[in-house]
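hey so u asked for the seq, here:
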Amino acid sequence: MPREGHVSLEDLNWEFGCSMDEGALHLFTEEENKFRMEFREFVRKEVLPVVDRIDKEKNFDLIHEAVRKMGRTGYIGVSFPKEVGGWGKGLVHQVIIGEELSAASYAVAVTYGASAVLYAMPIVRF
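ran it, structure tokens below
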């Protein structure tokens, strides 16, 4: 049973996609669930409207623009240390971003993963 303050299954809105089931919601903190819903709203406003064009037109500029918007809002650096301009969050927040992006567009999710995790994170860490 989810703890008080946690997001319920009804809040997740299945038409948009979700990789969690009812038994997993309690594994996330209230802050992590709040972050999920905030980022989901970002995806709904900034990514979802261009998904069809990305897929049909193979429009890489739209993919890059979506990732640039993530950078401007700080989502790219969610797990980067605060000392370098990040949010100082951990892997869970990166996973939430990956899940929510994947529900809308694998192309944007993979581009985020390559940009923020494969390329930028090693530069930040080492």
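The chain has one domain: 29-125. The longest helix spans residues 106-125.
lmk if thats what u needed
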